[in-house]
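Meet our chain:
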Amino acid sequence: MSGYEAGGAPEPSVARRVPDLAALELLLAVARLGSLGRAAKAVGVSQPAASARIRSMERQLGVALVHRSPAGSRLTEAGGVVTEWARRVVEAAEAFDAGAQALRARRDSRLRVAASLTVAEYLLPGWLVALRAARPETAVSLQAGNSAAVAAQVRAGSADLGFVEGPDVPAGLDGAVIGHDRLLVVVAPSHAWARRSGLPPAEVAGAALVLREQGSGTRQVLDEALVPHGGLGAPLLELASTTAVKSAAVTGAGPAVLSELAVADELAARRLVAVPVAGLDLTRALRAVWPRGQRPSGPARDLLALTRGAGP
């Protein structure tokens, strides 16, 4: 009767009925070297520990395996039979280990990363340089898109690790906050807002802004922040990249809302001016994300370790 003896008591599992690999390797060493002491040294344990392991295996199997004498140790007849079985088990375990190593090597040979545009343009290059130094054998591919697209790629299995912006971990994924970023309202120096010491949130909500597209982390954070202030109005322009939004703002098309990371150079050169908005929290989390229940390993784990404390 599978799993139960005739009386109904559960049978011991195979793992409890079969000696472990360490014990089987010790038995093979005794057969090969003819001495329990030499076998103990070969497998890296003390002789008392080796004797105890052999006795435990004999009790487990219910037969004597090794005959000990002043001249050395030799296998009993049962020990010879068990040794042949042990050899096949150990060879199978070695083949299993070699296969697992091959799988790890294949995993470690490539890393597929998907990242939001802000992270891809302003943070990932430095991380990837550091990863290259630590893992020169790993080929890295990077796909950049908005946060919604990144989450979809990770869920679909086309990216091993993703980086997104926004208030929450996307559905179906696990993640960790790796840093924070801040959105800024920016205008060209010629814009009327450039001379303002601050703006009320309602004025920002009602203005025609140059914005990222729906699905971007930047747009999601701005949308949610302005809900208590009347909600975001119709955009002046809706563009699919940070660079395009920034260029439009620099040329004076209208106010824009962009990551502090993205506009640092323009602010320093006075090509753009940041306008404070009183009482509006535009801080956002930067997150690494991965498939639910699958903690990053190999190169993905190493890249994740390099990202801690990201942001301005």
